[in-house]
Amino acid sequence: MRKQIVAVGLYGMSLLLNTERFPYAGETISGEMLSLEPGGKGFNQAVSVARNGGQAMFITAVGNDIFGKQFFEMCEKYGINGRCAYLQESKTAAAAVLSDVWGESRVIVAQGACRDVTAQCLNFCDIPHQAIWLLQHEMPDEVNLAAARVAKQTDGIVLLNPAPARPIRKELMPLIDYLIPNWGEALTITGMEGEVTPHQVAEKIHTFGIDNVLITMGEQGVWVSQQKHLGLRIPACKVHVEDTTGAGDTFCGAFAACLAKGETVEQAARYANCASGLSVTRKGVMSAIPFESEVRQFILEQAAQ
Ligand code: RIB
């Protein structure tokens, strides 16, 4: 059984710079240019779906500029079935992605057309039935809410990766089947702080009517919690971290691809944990998202350690 995966999210151009350390206010420092490549959490997740054996449809909005004109070319290059609204008055999104020698990153995103877009972008597509929908917080709430409603009307499943962190709209909560926050996003959503455990945070999220919660926690692994089941911690892979940018996107896309193949939540989470574990051993974003054959090999190597 292979379901289609529909990612609705931001597409933009990213300038990736590597630096020894991040600059202080008013300071100019030297760095190395890694690449100029398409990105955006939605696009990255769609690429991760495609590389991990899923069928990815991607819905976004672009502006009337050179980056917007390249959109379909990029979708073809990365194996994605792309659909977009062209907004004449907007610019295509762009991001400055800085990463340091410790593998940490700092990202500034100008959302451009993806800030201005309305739910009408969903009208550009033939919506597949029983699809898995991948949403993030780089699109307006109105678009995510409309996408989740369409998903439910067509017997689909909704995954929300609430990145960047902001509270989730109340109307959206009961429409979410899987919530995949990182630790900071999970705290923002629940309003919890201090000495709380992943179990407590996930339990609070379940009270919002969300049945499946996967909290990605970097070196602490992934907390997988399903309503009425005991939670489970999947340990992080043993790796040397080069760059963590886009690790969450790799996880979400790989997880969705596994669900589409009919795997259980735990199987999908274990695979996605290894896909993102492999991605952080590589610099960059697009070039770091692994292919299924690489992940399978990496799983064997991790098991032998
Ligand atoms: O998650 C990483 C992504 O966030 C980058 O590709 C950048 O485009 C930003 O949107």
Large-scale geometry: globular
Strand content: 15-25%
Which small-molecule species are bound to the chains here?
alpha-D-ribofuranose
CATH fold-level label:
UDP-N-acetylmuramoyl-L-alanine:D-glutamate ligase
- N-to-C CA distance: 33 Å
Order of the strands making up the biggest sheet: 5-4-1-8-9-10-11-12-13
- Share of helical residues: 25-40%
Number of discrete domains: 1
Average of pLDDT? 96
Largest β sheet strand count, sense and barrel closure: 9 strands, mixed
Query: In the CATH hierarchy, what is the class?
Result: Alpha Beta
Write up what this structure looks like.
This protein has one domain: 3-Layer(aba) Sandwich (UDP-N-acetylmuramoyl-L-alanine:D-glutamate ligase), CATH 3.40.1190.20. Helix content is 32%, strand content 24%. The chain is built from 10 helices and 13 strands. The strands form 2 sheets. The chain has a 9-stranded mixed sheet, with helices on both faces. The chain is globular. Alpha-D-ribofuranose binds next to strand 2, helix 1, strand 6 and strand 7.
